[in-house]
Amino acid sequence: MISVHVPATSANCCVGFDCLGMAVDWWAHFTFEESDELIVEGCPEEFKGSNNLVVQAFYTACDYLRLDYPTFKLTIDTDIPFARGLGSSSTCVVAGILACDAWFKKNMDQLEILKIATSIEGHPDNVAPAIFGQATACFMEKENVKMSLVPCADYHCLAIVPRYEVKTSQARKVLPTKMAFKDCVSQVSHALVFIQALQQGDESLLASSCKDLLHEPYRRQFIKEYDRIKTYCEQKQLPMWISGSGSTMMVVSLEKNRLIELSKFLDENLNGLDHRCLTIAKKGAFIKYE
């Protein structure tokens, strides 16, 4: 039996739209066993077949390696919420590719796995940290992914998860088609400082760098709790951003107690929010043989 374990991710990291991502220690688990027919368990009934994203990723890796599709039993064990901006689809994509690699003992390197995963996802900001862990910065050069690993200081994270979805397609429709030159300069400068502060553990500087002009001002309308939480975080100088396209919001701090205080504020003042204390995942997806 092959077990694949993949961390959730927070894409965009505020100022890094479609290029920055961070892995967190909220894990999805997938097991693959030999079977005479394809069996999928642990997901809604409509995805218990070859249309399952994990299976599709496995098959895509087979195509890449020019191998026939095997049959197997897939069991999915995850509580990462779907369509909340925590990379749930990326966990499925990465799991399928890693399982294929392990099934056929091909020993693909991580960059090959990233290439296949990006071809499925369309962009690398979620799949890259899921594969490599910590944080990653990526860009596309034609069909090639260029990636840099961003080692992170020991930040704690609070994932604040509303009990409603924000569809990525909906969130992309509201994005601007043009941006003023001065705003482009601001975006790049804040992103550069964000990466340095994330690595160096400068929480105050990280909070100051969380001023996005590219997507958050337009997507905030879909998250009714955003403004109140953003105001709290700005007053406390806590780094905070919309995770992916939402609806999850991610807050980080070097001091876990500051996030516990925020959790109490949420419980006392805002209804309909789940929240979970996490850390940055220091490693990415991995395989166990059982």
Automatic annotation (TrEMBL):
Q: Identify the metabolic or biological route this protein is part of.
A: Amino-acid biosynthesis; L-threonine biosynthesis; L-threonine from L-aspartate: step 4/5
What subcellular locations does the record give? Cytoplasm
| Similarity comment: family membership | Belongs to the GHMP kinase family. Homoserine kinase subfamily.
Name under which the protein is recorded: Homoserine kinase
Sorted alphabetically, the keyword list is:
Amino-acid biosynthesis, ATP-binding, Cytoplasm, Kinase, Nucleotide-binding, Threonine biosynthesis, Transferase
Gene Ontology CC entries for this record: cytoplasm
The residues that the entry says bind ATP are P81, F82, A83, R84, G85, L86, G87, S88, S89, S90, T91
Q: Identify a single GO molecular function assigned to this protein.
A: ATP binding
Q: What does this protein do?
A: Catalyzes the ATP-dependent phosphorylation of L-homoserine to L-homoserine phosphate.
Which Gene Ontology BP annotations are present?
threonine biosynthetic process
Tell me what reaction this enzyme catalyses. L-homoserine + ATP = O-phospho-L-homoserine + ADP + H(+)
Q: Does the keyword Nucleotide-binding apply?
A: yes
* Record flagged with keyword Kinase: yes
Q: E.C. number, please? A: 2.7.1.39
> What NCBIfam families is this protein classified in?
thrB
